[in-house]
């Protein structure tokens, strides 16, 4: 039995806006039933990639397949099988929670006999059953974000695109949404999630694609990327700017990989330093180390 095709397959995708190349030869795979995290600093091409997948933008070069449909020609067919949660809240504030979902059952052509059950299921997933009659502008930020995700799920899509799903939310609400996204993945829904939160990607994603300047600079399971690029341990060295410059110079002399964050210098692969390491605090290496090392950016 041949393996099922990936939910998303991009090869050599290029998108230009005038003289600016937003996506520069991107390869991207989202296997069926997995969650793939799309990481990158501002301007890396994440949002443009999302627009290409929904045919809001058309690629200048390369091939795009979504759920077996070629884009842009088959974009209408692919959109019918996917749900999209945008970064910006575009809920209709004049309608109630339930009415917002009802509108989308019509847009996604959910059969009349199935609409009530589809709405109830979406409300249950988003834990909004007791707020069904509330106007959107009466909801908290976390509830509105849950409603955006519920709206994307009302037609039982095979693929969900989540563009910065927890941006601007406090940590407690973010944890609630993580549980919801984890539930979707466990149910077999394919997910592509762009995010600035490194912990979010490390917690939820089966694999991560790190983007910089419109290209994928690293692809793999978070633990594999950490092991490959940052090692097992990191050494945090704190101090005034002059001390940090000394540490960076010493690291360059020895060929130690480093990253700079605020008031500290982090030396990666600290387990390989033997007795030469400067004084500092040891910790487990993580995906944030990989992100900053590969993109040269502070985490937003």
Structural class: alpha/beta
Mind telling me the C-alpha Rg?
22 Å
Shape: globular
Assign a percent range to the helix content. 25-40%
What is the CATH first-level class name of the largest domain?
Alpha Beta
Task: Describe this entry's structure for a reader.
The strands form three sheets. The chain has a six-stranded mixed beta sheet with strand order 6-7-8-3-9-10, sandwiched between helices. A four-stranded antiparallel beta sheet has the order 2-1-4-5. The chain is built from ten helices and 14 strands. It is α/β, with parallel strands linked by helices.
List keywords for this structure.
six-stranded mixed β-sheet; 27% strand; four-stranded antiparallel β-sheet; 300 residues; 2 domains; alpha/beta; globular; 10 helices; Rossmann fold
SSE layout:
Layout: E1 8-17, E2 20-30, E3 35-39, H1 46-53, E4 61-66, E5 69-71, H2 75-80, E6 82-85, H3 97-107, H4 115-125, H5 141-153, E7 159-163, H6 171-186, E8 190-195, H7 198-204, E9 207-212, E10 215-220, H8 222-229, E11 233-238, H9 241-254, E12 258-261, E13 264-268, E14 281-284, H10 287-295
Compact description:
The protein folds into two domains: 8-221, 3-Layer(aba) Sandwich (Rossmann fold); 231-284. 34% of the residues lie in helices and 27% in strands. It contains ten helices and 14 strands.
């Amino acid at each position: 039995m041949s393996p099922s095709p990936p939910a998303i397959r991009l090869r050599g995708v290029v998108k230009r806006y005038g003289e600016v190349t937003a996506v520069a030869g991107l390869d991207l795979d989202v296997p069926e039933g997995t969650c793939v995290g799309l990481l990158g600093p501002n301007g890396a091409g994440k949002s443009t990639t999302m627009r290409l997948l929904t045919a809001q933008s058309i690629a200048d070069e390369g091939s795009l397949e979504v759920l077996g449909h070629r884009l842009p020609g088959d974009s209408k067919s692919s959109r019918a099988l996917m749900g999209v949660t945008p970064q910006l809240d575009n809920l209709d504030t004049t309608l109630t929670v339930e009415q917002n979902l009802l509108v989308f059952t019509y847009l996604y052509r959910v059969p009349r006999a199935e609409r009530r059950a589809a709405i109830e299921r979406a409300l249950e997933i988003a834990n909004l059953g007791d707020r069904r009659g509330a106007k959107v502008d009466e909801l908290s930020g976390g509830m509105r974000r849950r409603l955006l995700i519920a709206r994307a799920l009302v037609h039982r899509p095979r693929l969900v695109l989540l563009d910065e799903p927890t941006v601007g939310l406090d940590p407690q609400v973010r944890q609630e949404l993580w549980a919801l996204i984890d539930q979707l993945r466990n149910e077999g829904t394919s997910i592509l999630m762009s995010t600035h939160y490194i912990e979010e990607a490390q917690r939820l994603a089966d694999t991560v694609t790190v983007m910089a300047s419109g290209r994928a600079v690293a692809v793999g399971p978070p633990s594999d990327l950490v092991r490959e690029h940052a090692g097992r341990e990191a050494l945090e060295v704190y101090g005034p700017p002059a001390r940090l410059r000394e540490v960076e110079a010493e690291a360059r002399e020895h060929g130690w990989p480093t990253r700079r964050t605020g008031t500290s210098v982090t030396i990666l692969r600290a387990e390989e330093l033997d007795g030469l390491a400067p004084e500092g605090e040891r910790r487990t290496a993580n995906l944030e180390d990989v992100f900053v090392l590969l993109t040269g950016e502070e985490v937003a």
